[in-house]
Structure formats: C-alpha cells, structure tokens
C-alpha cells in the first residue's frame, strides 16, 4: 500500500476569557459533509454507501448477458460473436484434458464403488511401466510416500499397503470412477467426493502429491456447464456457455505442466457427474468440438457472471470494453447493487496496525469507460492512525473489492 502521513496541527492556546469572546463572536454552524461524487465521498459514522454494477471481472462473455441475448432470440454463435468480436467459431475435436483435484492437493483419496459394494476392474500403472490389476475390494486407498504411491486395502479397520508403485501412477479400467477425498472441497459445489467418466493419475510435483482426473474435453464439460450456468436457461445461452467453456479449457492445455485446469473458480467449476443435466449435456452435444479462434489460435475465452451493462477490457482485441445491452435485458439482481460499508470495515483494509478511522474514500484511477468513468483500479482512503496522525493509503481496486466482499470493481458513490 502507498501511504502518506501528516501530523495534526496544534491550536494556539489562548487565555480563557479571550477564547470565550472569540467563540461567541466567531461561532458558525458546523460545515456539512461534502456531497459525494462518482469517485469520492466522506465517511460518516453510519458508514459509506457504494452503488455498484455487475458480478465478477467483467471480461468476455457476461453469463447473464447470454441469458438476455437468448431471450431476444440470438443464437449461440451470435452471442459469442458479440462478446468475443473478431473470433471465429472453429472445430477443434475432443482432446484429452487433465483436471487437478484441488481438495486433495497434498492429501490422499479412496476409490469407492460406483455401484454395488466393491470396486472392480481397476488397473494401476506405475511410471516405470509396472502394471497391477487390483482385485475387487470394498475400496482402495491411495497415498504418497516419497516419489511413490502406496495402494492400500482395508484389513479390519485399518488400511494396509498391498502395493507400492513409482510415480506417476495411473488408474484406469472402469468407465466411471468415484473418488472420496481426504478433505472436503470448499469451492464450487463442494463435497467430499467426485464421480466422473475417465481415468485418474497420481503425480508428485514440487515434493507434493497431486491428483488429476483425465478425460476427453467434452466429458469434462458435462461437469462444468451446469456448475457455471443454470440448466433452466435457454438452449442458446447454454450453448454459448459451452463454447466459451470449451474454448477456455482448450487454451489451457499445457503438455509441459503436470495439469491443464484446476476444478475451481480459479479456472472453471468442475464437479463431475454431480453437475450433469440433460439440458447442459444437450448443449455440449449440439456444439461438439466448437471453439473460438483468432488467426487459427484458440483464444482465452474469459467470462463472468454479470458485466453490469459494460464489459471490461481484457487487453486483447477479442476482449474489448464495450456497452452490453444484453446484460441489461436479463433482469439480473447483480446488474445493479448497493452495499453499505462500516467505518470499521474500511479501516480494516489497512490492517490492525494501520488506520483506526477512515474519513474519506476516493477512487483515483479508473478504466475510463462505462458508468462512473469505469471500473476502479486504485482507491485512496484517508483517515487517522493511533495517536491522531492523518494518513492516506492507496490500494488496488481488486484488493478493495476482495477484502470488502464486493461483487465487482465497477462501483461509484453516486447512482
């Protein structure tokens, strides 16, 4: 944080009688707080009211915008053409994708039956080529030991090691796998397990255990689309979401890295079969293989929930900042929102050893387009610290948003 500090001035001490005369002669009504502007406001004891728009970073497709466009009768192709101008819809097939299971980074897991009472047909293949057909059991537990993995079966109430295989270890055989996590997933739909069609790989990277669900990209999308967009929305909106999600994941394929995407909002929410619906699966089938490209290269098709009526620039030609009438037509409660921030919340931005009271807030840099002259990039807070010194700090718009739990950086202090 940038910071400037100014000491409070001491007043001249006058004799009591003189002071009384001056007070009586010069007293004036207290000055009213300055009226708020789009980018600056004083903070009262009751707090500060923010008027905001949108939910998320605002780059690329607005999901509520896709809903609004579909209501107007636009096709999926026209929707993605609006949000990613200059990009062409191209067929790129159905490549394999490796999905990092975030809940068990550094942890362990258990294969559980997908039906019946046993896990059957599971084959483990070690990094050195050794292959083991695992006998049918009620479950198989997998955990890292050094640069290897132990595969354990339950004996009584304890897990006992049956095999030790060199990493990376791949598990395949059954068309559907169910994995019980050693700790719950906290993002997206959460949960303590995932069921999916594909195989699983246990790797060691940076001295840490990581686990990857591997499957064709369209199988992956079955666990993504309904996690990212309500399946009750119009088919055109679901298809646009599918094209964007497929494009985003395809662009993330990185052979030199041990995984391609993570199963959280850091990339896209993926929750396996838990997220599958007939409507979203139909959207995946209807758009099979379709991705967005510019100059033959798959783009990074970012998207967010609601643009607030104006998209944000992604710094490339296909992610421009522009007016978004489709989001305004969707009727989302996130398009316009209000939040009151207490003085304590604002002071907490500076940490426990910083500001004790915030008296004014000012957005000193914006993106320059849209309401309030755009999204906040830098925010300045003025107040006092312990001891009474006047202090000004600056934080990024992203920090201001994240620490205060705002829906976006697209906000102002007037409507």
From TrEMBL:
Biological process (GO), any one: sporulation resulting in formation of a cellular spore
Entry's Gene Ontology cellular component terms: outer membrane-bounded periplasmic space
Residue ranges of domain Sporulation stage II protein D amidase enhancer LytB N-terminal in the record: 209-293
InterPro entries: Bact_Sporulation_Assoc, SpoIID/LytB, SpoIID/LytB_N
Keywords in alphabetical order: Signal
PANTHER family, A to Z: AMIDASE ENHANCER, N-ACETYLMURAMOYL-L-ALANINE AMIDASE-RELATED
Gene source species: Cryptosporangium aurantiacum
Protein name: SpoIID/LytB domain protein
Manganese keyword on record: no
Pfam families, per the entry: SpoIID (PF08486)
Signal peptide segment: 1-34
């Amino acid at each position: 944080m940038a910071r400037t500090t100014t000491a409070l001035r001491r007043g001249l001490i006058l004799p009591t009688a003189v002071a009384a005369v001056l007070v009586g002669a010069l007293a004036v009504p207290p000055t009213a707080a300055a009226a708020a502007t789009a980018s600056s406001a004083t903070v009262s004891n009751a707090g500060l009211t923010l008027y905001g728009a949108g939910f998320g970073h605002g780059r690329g497709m607005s999901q509520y915008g896709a809903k609004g466009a579909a209501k107007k009768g636009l096709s999926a192709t026209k929707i993605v053409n609006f949000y990613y101008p200059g990009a062409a819809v191209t067929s790129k097939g159905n490549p394999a994708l490796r999905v990092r299971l975030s809940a068990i980074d550094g942890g362990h897991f258990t294969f559980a039956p997908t039906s019946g009472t046993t896990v059957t047909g599971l084959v483990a293949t070690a990094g050195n080529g050794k292959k083991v057909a695992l006998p049918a059991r009620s479950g198989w537990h997998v955990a890292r030991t050094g640069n290897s993995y132990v595969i354990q079966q339950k004996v009584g109430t304890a897990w006992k090691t049956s095999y030790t295989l060199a990493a990376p270890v791949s598990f395949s055989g059954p068309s559907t796998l169910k994995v019980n996590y050693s700790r719950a997933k906290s993002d997206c739909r959460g949960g303590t397990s995932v069921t999916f069609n594909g195989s699983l790989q246990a790797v060691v990277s940076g001295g840490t255990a990581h686990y990857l669900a591997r499957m064709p990209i369209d199988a992956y999308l079955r666990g993504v689309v309904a996690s990212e967009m309500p399946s009750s929305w119009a088919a055109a909106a679901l298809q646009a979401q599918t094209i964007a999600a497929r494009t985003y994941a395809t662009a993330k394929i990185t052979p030199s890295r041990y995984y391609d995407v993570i199963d959280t909002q850091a990339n896209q929410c993926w929750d396996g079969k838990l997220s599958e619906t007939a409507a979203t699966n139909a959207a995946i089938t209807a758009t099979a293989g379709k991705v967005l490209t510019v100059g033959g290269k798959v783009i990074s098709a970012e998207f967010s929930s609601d643009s607030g009526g104006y998209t944000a620039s992604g710094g490339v030609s296909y992610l421009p900042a522009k007016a978004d009438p489709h989001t305004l037509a969707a009727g989302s409660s996130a398009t316009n929102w209000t939040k009151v921030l207490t003085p304590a919340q604002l002071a907490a931005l500076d940490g426990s050893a910083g500001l004790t009271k915030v008296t004014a807030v000012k957005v000193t840099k914006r993106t320059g387009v849209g309401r309030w002259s755009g999204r906040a990039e830098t925010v300045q807070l003025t107040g006092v610290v312990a001891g009474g010194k006047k202090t000004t700090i600056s934080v990024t718009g992203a920090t201001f948003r994240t620490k205060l739990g705002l829906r976006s950086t697209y906000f102002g202090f007037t409507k």
